[in-house]
Design a protein that fits this description.
The protein is an alpha/beta fold. The chain has 13 helices and 22 strands. The strands form four sheets. Strands 1, 2, 12, 17, 18, 20, 21 and 22 form an eight-stranded mixed β-sheet that branches. Strands 3-4-5-6-7-9-10-11 form an eight-stranded parallel β-barrel, surrounded by six helices. Strand 6, helix 7 and strand 7 form a beta-alpha-beta unit. The longest helix has 19 residues. It binds pyridoxal-5'-phosphate (PLP). Pyridoxal-5'-phosphate (PLP) binds next to helix 10.
Length: about 425
């Protein structure tokens, strides 16, 4: 994924300091067109490290230390979609320093972006699509990314590239479809593909993976069925004398809740960003998972400021379509953030924001660049006041928080879509308290 220079504000190695040194990042100012607007996403890297520890504790992981071997499954951070909108290079650097064993991305482009940012950790390209004739596998090998394969054409292509380019073998992970029904070799086809893999000396099967469809749902049965099928495939693989070092299956929901899904590595995404994977579910049956989820701290906070204030007389309508009509004289604040920034239009006349530590409702429709807020009841409201759209705020009138789960419920989506929707027009500021 490429960022325009104006939206990329990840700290470089030079301006990062030791983890325990308190400091607020002051990223280089972006191009004025971007930075003059007070709308920005603050990314709290200390909370990211905290969440990593929560996941490690939940899955029983103790990272290696001098004189002590690691215990438990490795934690591989999932950084697809620009680290769920948080800014992949900075997230990767922080996780690298905090000791994660690997990183997973969806796209080859995402892997390349992290390599050019200087990340040296193993990077698994989970999506497993490499363009026409799988030509992208060339770049995978060149950039030392870990390919995920599931089709014999991919196996042939990677073998050919390996023969042409280098003497050593190429490692890869095999993706099996155990019940998601999207990508991966179907269980019925595993045998044939394994025969081909065994007969291809250029390649080394270093990982076996699958993906869970229902791990965040209250009913564990579909997940247990997927785990059972994965286990069967794993045994078939072993029976052929193939010994992948990394078997991995668990997303955040499964990693926290289901020990049988953990294998050699877990692949949390949403939990690292401080959002419970069980948002949509009725209380998940596993009490420990719930407890871990409750410990997570949101990493992203989206804030802006009031850029205009006006009194609207009784009966006057505002916004596109005049969907909001003043009942009595109302005070309307305008914020420079709209649906093009990721503030969903579905929040029109529905969502709220935080001003001076107090809730204020969105008035009228969210437009592309601007949104109106009814601040009549916010005592002392003034131009320039901070407005929080996602995250917490302490102010003179109180304190509050708007979670990704709350926004997702209002919009009719999942928290994953809320955080990944904060668009590239919103600069990311990295805090390292
Ligand atoms: C996105 C993704 C994950 C992480 O899922 P979360 O629910 O965000 O933890 C893990 N594995 C694969 C294959 C994914 O695509």
């Amino acid at each position: 994924m490429s960022h325009g220079p104006v939206s990329e504000q990840a700290p470089t190695r030079e301006d990062e300091r030791e983890d325990d040194e308190p400091r607020v990042h002051r990223p280089r100012r972006a191009a004025p067109a971007d930075a003059v607007r007070p709308t920005r996403a603050e990314v709290n890297l200390a909370n990211l490290r905290h969440n990593l520890r929560v996941v490690e504790r939940a899955v029983g992981r103790t990272p290696p230390a001098p004189g002590r071997a690691a215990v438990g499954p490795e934690v591989w951070g999932v950084l697809k979609a620009d680290a769920y909108g948080h800014g992949a290079p900075a997230i990767a650097r922080t996780l690298e320093r905090a000791g994660v064993a690997g990183i997973c991305v969806a796209l080859l482009e995402e892997g390349l972006e992290l390599r050019s940012a200087g990340i040296t950790l193993p990077i698994v390209v989970m999506g497993g699509y490499y363009g026409p004739q799988h030509r992208g596998l060339e770049e995978v090998v060149e950039s030392d990314l870990m390919p995920v394969l599931y089709h014999s054409e991919q196996v042939e292509r990677l073998a050919r590239i390996t023969r042409e380019r280098r003497a050593t073998r190429s490692g890869f992970h095999l993706k099996v479809d155990t019940g998601m029904g999207r990508l991966g070799v179907r269980a019925a086809g595993v045998d044939e593909l394994l025969s081909e893999i065994s007969a291809t000396p250029e390649l080394e099967l270093v990982g076996l993976m699958s993906h869970l469809a229902c791990a965040d749902a209250p009913d564990p049965e579909p997940t247990l069925a997927q785990v059972a099928l994965f286990e069967r495939v794993r045994r078939d693989v072993a029976a052929r004398g193939l010994a992948p070092r990394h078997c991995h299956l668990a997303n955040s929901a499964a990693a926290l809740a289901m020990p049988a899904s953990r294998y050699d590595a877990v692949r949390p995404g949403i939990a690292l960003y401080g959002v419970s994977p069980y948002a949509g579910a009725t209380p998940f049956p596993v009490a420990e998972a719930r407890a871990s989820a409750d410990e997570l701290r949101p990493v992203m906070r989206v804030r802006t400021e009031i850029v205009a204030l006006r009194d609207i007389p009784d009966g006057e309508a505002i916004g596109y379509g005049h969907t909001w009509v003043a009942k009595g004289t109302r005070t309307i604040a305008t914020i420079p953030m709209g649906y093009a920034d990721g503030l969903s239009r579905a929040l029109s006349n529905k969502g709220s924001v935080l001003v001076r530590g107090q809730r204020a409702p969105i008035a009228g429709v969210v437009s592309m660049d601007l949104t109106a807020v009814d601040v009549t009841d916010v005592r002392g409201v003034a131009l320039g006041d901070e407005v929080v759209v996602l995250g917490s705020q302490d102010g003179p009138l109180g304190s509050g928080a708007i979670s990704a789960a709350e926004l997702a419920a209002l919009v009719g989506t999942i928290p994953w879509e809320i955080v990944t929707s904060i668009s590239r027009r919103v600069p990311r500021f990295f805090r390292q308290p």
